[in-house]
Amino acid sequence: MCGIVAYVGSKQCANLMLEGLKRLEYRGYDSAGIATIDQGKITVVKTVGRVANLEDKLEQVGGIRGSIGMCHTRWATHGGVTDPNAHPHTDDKSGICLIHNGIIENYVALKTYLEEKGHKFKSQTDTEVLAMLIGELYDGDLEAAVQAALREVTGAYGIVVMCEKEPDTLVAARKGSPLMVGVGDGEFVIASDGSAIIAHTSHAFTLEDYQVVKVTPKGFRTSTIHNVPVTPKVQQLEIELEQIELGSFSHFMQKEIFEQPKALRNTLRGRTDAREGKIVLGGVSNFAKQLTATRRIVLTGQGTALHAATIGEYLIEDLARIYSVAEYGSEFRYRNPIIEENTLVIAVSQSGETADTLAALIEAKERGALALGVVNVVGSSIARETDAGVYLRVGPEIGVASTKAFTGQVAVLTLLGLYLARRRHMSGDECSDLIRELEQIPDKMERILEHDAKVRKVTEKYVDRENWLFLGRGYNYPTALEGALKLKEISYIHAEGMPAAEMKHGPIALINDGMPAVFIANKGRQYEKVISNIQEVKSRGGRIIAVATEGDEHIKKMADDVFYIPDVPECLSPMLAVVPLQLMAYHAAVIRGHDVDKPRNLAKSVTVE
Q: Would you call 163 a catalytic residue per the annotation?
């Protein structure tokens, strides 16, 4: 979602903060702003558009000075995309300046109260209401005013606040929206993501929900919103600067597609033992008996993570013979879900901060479920809320359209499926065979990536078509969903994914002459059925793009274009079948001239409902 960077120390901080803000551009936003305190006065500059627009505006006004400040990229929730609605926001009384991620749910009541007190508002945002409330409560102690204001607030927030009357102090707080504090030598960087901190310090701590930190160049104090002192754990950041830089690639999405073989090797490293037919998952080992006794599994996620979860549903049922179901997190929490004894809930998320998934997880835990997390970001909200979990270990993912996190999620769910299967009924030899096949996936993925130029050439033939179908069966029905999502996310082409058999029950009416239909037609239990579905589309004028198993010459007679993937057991095929679909989406976006890494209206981490 929105990006936060703030600094206090001895350096002129404007350029430092803007560089950090650029590292957060992948999160998705529509306006940007910056504020500093210099000689006891706050200066605010903000504008709609990209950080580059903000830099142009700063140049027009002659720059901005100060060794304490904050900057922000906003993804609009309350109020349109306008300069007045951009952050930072100030109050009209006490020299308060504030940036905010999240949503203040009771802002209407608070605004009415403040208007009755005589406050005049300049924006349509909930954030300005919080700035005014802090200003109304300010009585010479910024930390106390922030604590008091947050005791009146319902909703989600990650905020940083400064005040002209305390020109060396930042106060930050968090509830439901990630925020971390980088600890340097006489300087501190507060940010919503470690990628904005790592260039300045490798040590940081994460604020927990309902915690407040007061920071000056001399040090920091951490407490709750009720002013109960707490001691944070300062840790070394696990990311490196080179991981969040483009290197020789044109876009982060392109880089992350090509990083997948290496990323999957990291995911699997130390977790597979083919010789013994054994899966080693230290993150869940303390719950082995409970996992073995599981009778029902609910996998929950949103977007790409839900597609990975759906593959996980197929995997776990097939391998471990446990009833499994994948659910939208956003729907799960608002139903009256049935959580029986020995129910396991698996929350799947790249960021570990997805609000809907986190809320579903909490709901399931409150009803007695054992909770596992499959996330990428160490120390994220979901990771902290679960009973146990397995990290993806794929490295930072910057592109908004998830790629390596998806294949990492599928790999981890495969490990979990094998772990459960081996403890319940699967023989050691069968498990060993599947582990050996799984360990070869990264090498086979590299072979697919070698055909990138062919994928681009095929994409060029169809990129002007505005309606596509993605069709698969069994394990690769969710892969079809993911291929369609990738195409529409970044190329803005309308694409629909579905089970291939479902096409006859209505969507076949959409097919007209030249319509691209992407079939995942690798060898498997339903191969002949998929071939029949291909014939149905072809006979109605559709153009067939097939993802098929190497050596399948028969499919060339029906398909207009074929992308081949190496032969693997069917349960492992989604990790390979998705790669040409990712490449096709990437090339479609580039050819159409879109901003691949920052698609319109989207945010990397959706931390509000």
A: no
Per-residue pLDDT band for 226 (boundaries 50, 70, 90) equals very high
- Which tokens belong to 301? 């996620």
pLDDT at 377: 85
Q: Where would I find the H helices in 546-595?
A: 574-591
Q: Are 496 and 470 in contact (CB under 8 A)?
A: yes
d(CA 281, CA 416): 8
352 confidence band (pLDDT: 50, 70, 90) = confident
Share of the chain above pLDDT 70, in %: 97
Q: Are 294 and 322 in contact (CB under 8 A)?
A: yes
Amino acid identity at 200: H
Catalytic residue from among 111, 255, 488, 604: 604
Distance CA 534, CA 523 (A): 14
Nearest Cα neighbor of 90 from 133, 31, 27 is: 133
Are 130 and 101 within 8 A, CB to CB? no
Residues 549-579, buried b or exposed e (16+ Cβ, 10 A)? beebeebeebbbbbbbbbbbebbbbbbbbbb
What pLDDT is attached to residue 201?
Answer: 81
Chain region(s) in the chain for CATH 3.40.50.10490: 246-439, 451-597
CA atoms of 492 and 567, how far apart (whole Å): 32
Alpha-carbon separation of residue 357 from 305, 329, 466 (angstroms) = 10, 5, 31
pTM recorded for the entire structure: 0.75
User: In this predicted model, which residue has the larger pLDDT, 526 or 1?
Assistant: 526
What digits encode the pLDDT tens for the residues 571-595? 999 999 999 999 999 999 999 999 8
CATH topology of domain 246-439: Rossmann fold (3.40.50)
Q: Please choose, from the candidates 91, 164, 92, 160, the residue with its C-alpha nearest in 3D space to the C-alpha of residue 131.
A: 91
d(CA 335, CA 313): 20
pLDDT of 79 over the 80 cut: yes
DSSP 8-state class, residue 271: T
Catalytic residue at 97?
no
pLDDT above 90 coverage of the chain, percent: 68
- Name the one residue in this structure whose structure tokens are 């230290």: 282
pLDDT band with cut points at 50, 70 and 90 for residue 604: low
CATH class, 3-241 region:
alpha beta
Helix/strand/coil (H, E, C) string of 188-234? EEEECCHHHCCCCCCEEEECCCCEEEEEECCEEEEEECCCCECCCCC
CB atoms within 10 A of CB 429: 9
Side chain identity at 582, as an amino acid letter? Answer: Q
CATH 3.60.20.10 placement within the chain: 3-241
According to CATH, the topology of domain 451-597 is Rossmann fold (3.40.50)
